[in-house]
Amino acid sequence: MTAPATALRVEKVAVHFGGLVALSDMNFTVGEGEIVSLIGPNGAGKTTAFNVVTGFLDPTHGAVSYRGTALNGLKPHQIAGLGLIRTFQRTSVFPNDTVYDNLLVGLHRQGRVSLLEAILGLPRARSSQRRLRERASELVEWVGLERRAHDLAGSLSYGEQRLVGVALALAAEPSMLLLDEPVSGMNASETHTFVQLVRNIRDRGVTILLVEHDMPMVMSVSDRIVVLNYGRIIAEGSPDVIRNDPAVIEAYLGQGATRA
Ligand SMILES: Nc1ncnc2c1ncn2[C@@H]1O[C@H](COP(=O)(O)OP(=O)(O)OP(=O)(O)O)[C@@H](O)[C@H]1O
Predict the structure, then answer these.
(1) Which of 96, 115, 129, 216 has its CA 20 to 30 A from that of 6?
(2) Which part of the chain is the ABC transporter domain (predicted)?
(3) d(CA 61, CA 32)
(4) Predicted local confidence at residue 158, as pLDDT
(5) How confident is the model at residue 242 (pLDDT cuts 50, 70, 90)?
(6) Which of 47, 179, 226 to mutate to test the pocket of ligand 1 (most atoms within 8 A of CB)?
(7) How far apart (Å, rounded) are the C-alpha atoms in residues 67 and 177?
């Protein structure tokens, strides 16, 4: 099997916070259509790496590129404009709006119809509104929240609110989706359903990079896993390779079996 073309390339990235070295000489790639997970014990540097890739943090050294475009110096919204879309650990939904309305607002933010056109009810605005409503329904269905579509987002369980966050990210039509601890707060059945959703998103052509602590979830969903410890990559490979890697086992000893 030939390797997929490289989508994301992280080269020699280091991040220093004063005297603290949060990341050091980090090199990894994510291929088009791959599901790659970044794991490691608490404080290993996963969130820092995510923040560098998405432009929320400038690396002290090194370079990141996406589909051949250098990301260094680009602002988060410019990186998002290249199709690299992230979710956050804390999902920011509007709790007093319905799930469906949250999606409509998200879609509106990227709409091409001016406010004046919308207020005047011009035909272009009317057909655009119809398309946005159809798209909001599709997205709600895609993440499996159709039965909750007309409930207030604030009344949803924590796991369901994470799904709204994923739907909002999908509304931006990513070519690569970065998921930051997406199943934290989900129960086992929600997590199982979420794994199916991640695979389904990938099958529709979206590349995925995941930071996650839930090891069974990571093992079941990932094509490849990159393991960080103290800011350095200590192992990289398929779930089977990672599961049996002595350096990985040692890094996790004392961390507890479930909290990786
Ligand atoms: N803004 C910052 N200023 C100073 N130190 C920071 C900052 N952000 C992170 N760090 C430090 O950098 C190191 C890596 O932190 P990071 O949050 O990336 O780890 P992590 O692997 O995401 O951890 P966790 O699994 O607990 O979320 C830690 O030692 C952390 O204390």
Answers:
(1) 216
(2) 8-255
(3) 25
(4) 86
(5) very high
(6) 47
(7) 14
C-alpha span between 247 and 229 (Å, rounded): 10
Where does CATH 3.40.50.300 sit in the chain?
6-90+173-252
* Angstrom distance (rounded) from CA 174 to CA 202: 11
Query: What single-letter DSSP state applies at residue 155?
Result: G
CA 125 vs CA 30, 49, 121, 135: distances in Å: 39, 41, 6, 15
């599709």: which residue's tokens?
138
pLDDT at 13 over 50: yes
**How far away, in angstroms, is 43 Cα from ligand 1 center?**
5
Which ligand 1 atom minimizes the distance to the CA of 17? 4
The arithmetic mean of pLDDT across residues 12-20, rounded, is 96
Strands (E), 40-114: 61-66, 69-70, 84-86
- What is this model's ipTM? 0.94
In CATH terms, is domain 6-90+173-252 a member of 3.90.1280.10? no
Reading the block at residue 236, the tokens are 């990289």
Q: Are 229 and 41 in contact (CB under 8 A)?
A: yes
Residue 184 CB–ligand 1 contact under 6 Å: no
Q: Residue with the nearest Cα to atom 5 of ligand 1? A: 17
Residues 249/257, Cβ–Cβ less than 8 Å: no
Kindly provide the b/e burial profile for residues 9-36, where b requires at least 16 CB atoms within 10 angstroms of the residue's own CB: bbeebbbeeeeebbbbebebbbbbbbbb
Among 182, 183, 202, smallest CA distance to 35 is for 202
